[in-house]
Request: fold
Amino acid sequence: MNARVRLLLSSYVPLFSVGVVRFDDNRLQMVLGFLVIAGIWSLISLIRVSTRRVHPREARPTSVRDLSSEVGAYVATYLLPLMTVPDPEPRDLIAYALVLTVIGIVFVNSDLVGVNPLLSLWGYRVFQVSGVRKLATGGEADTIVISRQRIVAGSTVKVADLATGVSLAISHTEDHQR
Reply:
C-alpha cells in the first residue's frame, strides 16, 4: 500500500474510533473497528519500515515551519460533520463516504499528508521543511518531516523517507554554526 494512503488511513483512526462508539449498527461498528486496527497497524508498520529498512540520510534544513497546530483543524474538518447521526441510513453512509473520499484525495495530494491526529497522539510533531529534499533539477522542494522533537533551521537532521515529500526524523542535533 502506498505510504501516503497508509498515512491517510491512519489519520482517520480517531474518526473511525468515534464511529465505533457513536453508531448503533453492529456491522458498521465491526467495519469501523477493523479500520481502526488497520489504520494503527498501517502507521506502526510504516514507521518501523522507515526506521529499520530505509537508509537514513543527513540533511540540514534551511527553513522550518511547524504544522502541528493544523491537526485540530483537520480533525474538525472530518469529525464534526460526520458524527451527527447515531443510526445512519444508507444515504448517510454514502454521503459520509463521499466526504471522506474528497478529504482523502485532498489529503494525499497535498501537504496535509503529514498532518495526522494519530501521530500527534503518539507524541510526534509535523514540520514543513526546506533543504531536506533535492529535486533532479538541483533545486530544493519542501518536505513534510515528522519528528518527536522540534526541528530548527540549520540543525543536522537524520531522516528516513516515508513517501515522496514525507520524511521521518530519526535523530537530530542543533548546530549553531551558520
Q: What stands out?
A: The radius of gyration is 18 Å. The first strand starts at residue 57 and ends at 59. The mean pLDDT is 82.
